[in-house]
Amino acid sequence: MSPRIVKVSSRRYHSHRLRLSSSHYTLPREIPSSNSIRISSRSSNRIRPIDHRLIDSTNAAKCINNINEKSTVIREGNTYEHATAPLFLRWNSTGITVAGISGVSGPAANQLNHPWGLGFDSSYALYIADRINNRVQKWDINASTGTTVAGQANATGGSTLYHLNQPTFIQFDSSDNIYVTDVGNHRVQFWHYGARSGSTICGTGIAGNSTNQLNQPFGIARDPITKTLYVADYENHRIMQYQWGQLSGTVVAGGNGPGTNRTQLYRPVTVHFDSSSNSLIIVNYDAHNVVRWILGASSWTLVAGSINGTSGNSSTLLSNPIGVMLDPMKNVYVIDRNNHRVQLFLTDQLNGITIAGVTGLNGSNATLLYYPYAVIFDAELNLYVADRYNHRVQKFLRY
């Protein structure tokens, strides 16, 4: 199969302080155009390169010359300004199974059962919200089995502090503590690193719509500076904001009933905090779109999909999107669930490019996905996709 190659628009880039995030990495807000940008890996205490190259501006599937200039290591206080040429990102269209057994579900240590949310800790171990097994699994690099770090290894669900009931998304802080959306218990649980039990930090365990209740919280995002949590309150059609240590939240997006108007959300399933614009990127599951809601605003702007809630499988449409991630250049990656694909929307573009999976075709071979649910990157911008109905996590190499 030919690699998936996409163009990144020309623009001017300014570097900002480079620091690692609470999840897996942090890159500069904008990147100097060069053959390599160097980022620090806290797991290895070294500087590691990420390559960028040119592609034909009129044909996103045809690679041309490499950029020859070299970048310097970014240091706090330094600002670079480059007039840039187009860049490209490309991934192999054949995935590698890095967790689970393709097409086989189960509770064994080498198995998954409908994996959902993904995350990396500071050592680049992969964490997986193993939803139907009611647990969070940790897979070390190149491991063939996982270790249970939240919930019960035998897949027993429950509502005690030792249990989870269908966990969906996970977040980390700088100490590798875990935040888990425990959707079946209508709560968010906090698990200290290495702990055997969690504590409830959002929700009461009973579905409701008051400010201290949640109704199927699926997605979660965290501001690492303020420690504020943002929770996608799916059946309440709103995003809740929780200040650290507070059990009662504030509605910061939606909350006006289900719908496709710009003041409404329709089953928001995933939320991503974009610190550069102080906004939330929200996956609007039943409105078939992804929207941006600036904190403090009363309405959203469209990022991807249909503005009026139309579903479809064209390059401008989505069908029940369910996951989202931004890269360092603020391109948007969307898990297009019902179309069995991952779509890339370049910054400010509404026309998507399929970079993993085949539109409308599900399956278990290495080039196909079967209702994918989440996407994340490692430090080299390799893609990891939770391939839910294949009970596996697929890695698509960038090169």
UniProtKB/TrEMBL annotation:
CDD domains: NHL. NHL repeats lie at residues 99-142, 158-194, 318-348. GO terms for molecular function: zinc ion binding. Pfam families: NHL. It comes from the Eukaryota. The keyword Repeat applies. InterPro entries: 6-blade_b-propeller_TolB-like, NHL_repeat, TRIM-NHL_E3_ligases. Keywords: Repeat. This is NHL repeat-containing protein. The lineage of its organism: Eukaryota, Metazoa, Spiralia, Gnathifera, Rotifera.
